[in-house]
Specification:
There is one protein chain. The chain is mostly helical and about 425 residues long. It has a single domain, classed as Proton glutamate symport protein, CATH 1.10.3860. About 75% of the residues lie in helices and about 0% in strands. It has 20 helices and no strands. It is globular.
Amino acid sequence: MKKLGLASQILIALVLGVVVGALFYQNETVINVLTPIGDIFIHLIKMIVLPIVIAALIVAVAGVGDMKTIGRLGGKTILYFEIVTTIALAVGLLAANLFHPGTGIDMSNMEKGDISKYEETSKASSEKATFSETLVHLVPTNVFQSIAEGDLLPTIFFTVLFGLGIAAVGDKGKPVLGFFEGILEAMFWVTNKVMKFAPFGVFALISVTVIKFGVGALLPLGKLVLVVYGTMAFFVIVVLGIIAKMAGTSVFTLFKVLKEEIILAFSTASSEAVLPRLMDKMEKFGCPKAITSFVIPTGYTFNLDGSAIYQSIAAIFVAQMYGMPLSIYEQITLLLILMLTSKGMAGVPGASIVVVITTLGAMGLPLEGLAFIVGIDRLLDMVRTTVNVFGNSLAAIVMSKWEKVFDQEKSKKYIEELKQQTKAA
């Protein structure tokens, strides 16, 4: 019997998790047994993410060693992120207006979730969510605190400067660069070991979700789920498909390259779970280390296409549910507010829900409407995480092509290797 690949193992774990979850619906004992397994896997992933991001970025920036080049890459990257996320927000608004997921819902038969913790986070975050405050937050007062809190933006800012410093001191910086190259190699070895635990983590996470959630709770909000999933599929295949075509590749090629990461991101609803492997895969696909190490971690803050689509649909959904239709002018205002809040809330726990709460408050819409969505948020989180991951992988290719440093031969060779592996399996 041939050994199953990681993608197949995760897919089997996903199916088994759904079956077990359905069999033990609302069984607290099974939840208590499985929850620690899923939590341990997520903790393992979080444990390795920042060391890899820091080491990879230092090695890449020190290799480039040119502040002008890094500055140009940063400017192009932020511009691309802003354009694509704005398109994602607009696509979400269009879908919500076309399909009306919130119209005709009987709220009396629906369960409400607790959104108080998100409201508190929203209040605390909105106080510092202005553009100037976000800019100030970019520069850490204590880089070790930023690292400890898993705050990517200030960590990236310091790491880029540190990498440039290593390059600037010449021979004296070589031992430091060698140290971080060693860390990077060691952390990729750790990543490969951690990923062997992925099927167990996925099984536990999915089982617990289905046990808590069940199928019955989905029915009243089935239209919302279908609209969100359908819009995400449209965005990836059409919008990102056009961008990929312009960049000289295709989304279907990218699907083949990232099948394991896509399944893992979907089943864990954690973009962090695939960050190390995503950087490694895109480098093998032909993107230089300097691009992948900068673009992908930055995209985890600024390029969340799936989250943008969800946020715009959720805001319109609440307005429709309460019979409060928004005019074109109000929807343009909503789009502008989401453009700002989605960036200002980056890195906040439960960011997508917090962004929607903040936006609803700014638009004078009932915050309680979101309480009906919280119960199925895990299902929506799975697809938006997958789209976020896919969008950031494409961003690395686009930036590599834009900078004219994409290795086409390396890309062709890697695709051929994948084809051979598929045939062997």
